[in-house]
Amino acid sequence: VGGGTAGWLTAGVIAAKHQARRQHGFTVTLVESPNVPTIGVGEGTWPTLRSTLKKMGVSETELFRQCDASFKQGARFNRWTTGAPDDGYYHPLMLPQHFGQVNLAPHWLADEGSATFCDTVTPQGRICDEGLGPKTIATPEYDGHANYAYHLDAGKFSHFLQRHCCDTLGVRHVKADVTEVHLDESGDIASLDTEQGISIAGDLFIDCTGFAALLIGGAMKVPFRSCTDILFCDTALAMQVPYDLPEDPIASHTISTAQSAGWIWDIGLPTRRGVGHVFSSSHISADAAEQELRDYIGPAARDLTARRLAIRAGHREQFWVRNCVAVGLAAGFLEPLEASA
Q1: Roughly what angle, to the nearest 10 degrees, separates helices 154-167 and 4-17?
Q2: Judging by DSSP bridges, how do beta strands 172-175 and 29-32 pair with one another?
Q3: In what order do the strands lie in the sheet with 205-207?
Q4: How far apart are CA 207 and CA 11, in angstroms?
Q5: How far apart are CA 36 and CA 208, in angstroms?
Q6: What percent of the chain has pLDDT over 90?
Q7: Taking the model in full, what pTM does it have?
Q8: Computed from CA positions of residues 48, 49, 53, 58, in that sequence, does the dihedral angle turn out positive or negative?
Q9: How far is CA 265 from the centre of its chain?
Q10: Using the 8-state DSSP alphabet, how is residue 318 labeled?
């Protein structure tokens, strides 16, 4: 229940895994409200998405063509240590060689050189500095000379997954608003009623309804555990920033820059940048936070409107109860700094 990237990825993974069972009556149905928009902000991913899409039979070439995608080779954290303009370090996605056999940190510390730890143990920071990609045009799909994930347009990605799931994997797509969840005598979810008069029965129900958590919270009554006592950021402001010139370089890493009460993400796509400010409203006003965002972007922000999103840091006490599983925001949302929220 629920679309977006969480819903369509979940439907696609299940449908791809059980294709051989379709002839025996196995079906995957995705129920999506036509009246609830998706969040559509998350533009950074993890390398594990590559294996997920490959298992679903998705063409990586078509992913780049249709989802405004670019490479992500890690994150650069600017001004987190001293706050100076040249203060920054990389978290690359490429692991050091023999990472599981030897700890390279003591050797790097003993050297007392000027090289960063990233440059000492992996070439990926230099690859990013040089504006290069993790693979060449001749590298097979989902393979790379360096580890990588994607930056992409979340809205386009959701529609791309929807088409693949419905046209290739046989997922049934029902556009309807869930109004009632029926439980059987054992406490399992038996069926759903919708405002459009459609009733849907099933064996396993996946809650991808976002913060609403219609199934895991509403029907199964699983409590929400807040983490706001240790995770203070509760608001995000997002902007889509056009490039000055079509040939402007595209950063192949997320740029995360510390601010007075939060941090700014800067993600390069082929046609624009996704830039936003995650901050604590207890420590800075929304107007001041927006000004920090506009100061970071510069003149390009003059005619842009910031989209404001509330962050509820926390998670459900259980993600899987009886025949109901929560995925995505329905399960929880923490700090998006490493694109792992």
Answers
A1: 30
A2: parallel
A3: 205-207, 324-326, 320-321
A4: 11
A5: 12
A6: 89
A7: 0.92
A8: negative
A9: 13
A10: -
Question: Which pLDDT score, from 0 to 100, does residue 39 have?
Answer: 66
- Mapped onto helix, strand or coil, the DSSP state of residue 58 is coil
- Residue 15 CA to residue 57 CA, distance in Å, equals 11
Catalytic choice (72, 135, 156, 175): 72
Residue 191 pairs in a beta bridge with 182, 201
Domain ranges of the chain: 4-43+153-223+316-338, 70-149, 235-310
CA 209/CA 259 separation, integer angstroms: 32
Confidence of residue 97 (pLDDT cuts 50, 70, 90): confident
- Cα distances from 271 to residues 127, 294, 321, in angstroms, run 22, 20, 42
Structure token pair of residue 62: 């078509």
* Contact criterion met (CB below 8 Å) for 187 and 321: no
> Superfamily for 4-43+153-223+316-338?
FAD/NAD(P)-binding domain (3.50.50.60)
**Residue 69 and residue 157: Cα distance in Å, rounded?**
9
Average pLDDT, the chain: 94
Token pair, residue 139, equals 């590298």
Q: Is 72 an active-site residue?
A: yes
DSSP secondary structure letters along 195-234: TTS-EEE-S-EEE--GGG-IIIIIIT-PPEEE-TTT----
> By C-alpha distance, which of 174, 209, 171 is closest to 57?
171
